[in-house]
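It would be a great kindness if you could assist me with a short task in structural biology. The full record is reproduced below for your convenience:
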Amino acid sequence: MNMTIKQWPNLVVYAIAVLFSVLSPRMTAAQETADDVLLSALKLEQPILLCGETVPVDYPQAVERFEKEMLVSLGNRPQVILWLKRTTRYFPYIEQMLRENGLPDDLKYLAIAESALRMHAGSPKGAMGVWQLMPQTARKYGLVVDVNFDERRNLYLSTPAALTYLKTLYERFGSWSLSLAAYNMGEEGLEAEILEQGLTNYYQLYLPLETQRFVFRILAIKRIVEAPQNHGFNLSPGDFYAPKTFSTVRVNAFTDLPLRLIANAAKTDFKTIKDFNPEIRGHYLAAGTRAVNIPGDGDAGFEGRLTALIETDTKIRNQRVYVVKEGDSLSSIAQKFEVPLAALLIWNRIGLSKVIHPGQRLVIFPAAGGIKTDLKDIEGDADG
């Protein structure tokens, strides 16, 4: 068939129209199925319980708030899949701690609402970890939060603190809905609103918008996680993340200890040590005695290997000392020895803004490919 160039646009439009007419019924059917799933998710049977307390689903505003949180959660299906996959890794420990503390099992869903079960989740206000504890709250309940450690990032350290805090809130407010609201907005702020409004019912209080949504968000998470297949999430057992297995050893460090030495002694790598101990900040374990989690097969002989590695590392470091000269800067020293500036900062535990002075001693490990600078500048080599 001969066709002029001017006729091509008409042909393209016609082809698109034909394609759309074929696919449109299928697309419509798929959309209708998705809509049916969403509408089904909003159906509420009675009673609805959260932490053993009845949610007033006969209250129109409560129903609307619940429906919003269900639709918002289901609208981010990739995030929900990650929630579900992480539950098998972290929920067993949280559930055990809830049982031991005599607390409602539903409180485990608070961890998803706060952080989606992410160890390093942080907020602009300074909250951190699975339970999103603020620094002052964490310290109040026994966690270390300083330049060396942030125990809010460790599930096994932060969970007991978070549960103690929740117990305290329940003793103060007498209901779990109010306790969860206080957890979100702060107990002083909630108590002020209760006094001003003359109400003690979470579902009737006017609170910050985030707090008005908070309990319903937890309720929506509970309904999705308890019956994911009802909401279109059909994961098989192999889709879930396996729990991490580890042993705990005690490390006695007389000085700050490079984590790479702990990793080598545990027969693993730096990343694994950081993943098993997310509370440790930076590249070093601060001096002192500390419990450290390592892979389960790395504990046999760990102490002896670590002692030997520390002795060897100390000897090497003593042979790699550079004495700062007049006119030196961190950048010029790094360039001189052809090592990354960032590595120089790590080896010497200093910041980029640190001012160095003549006579100061810096540790420098030459680059693997060798260095052009005369090694006599390094004290250890000059001394033989």
Residues 369-376, 380-384 have pLDDT under 50 and may be disordered. The two ends are 88 Å apart (CA to CA). Residues 8-41 form the longest helix (34 residues).
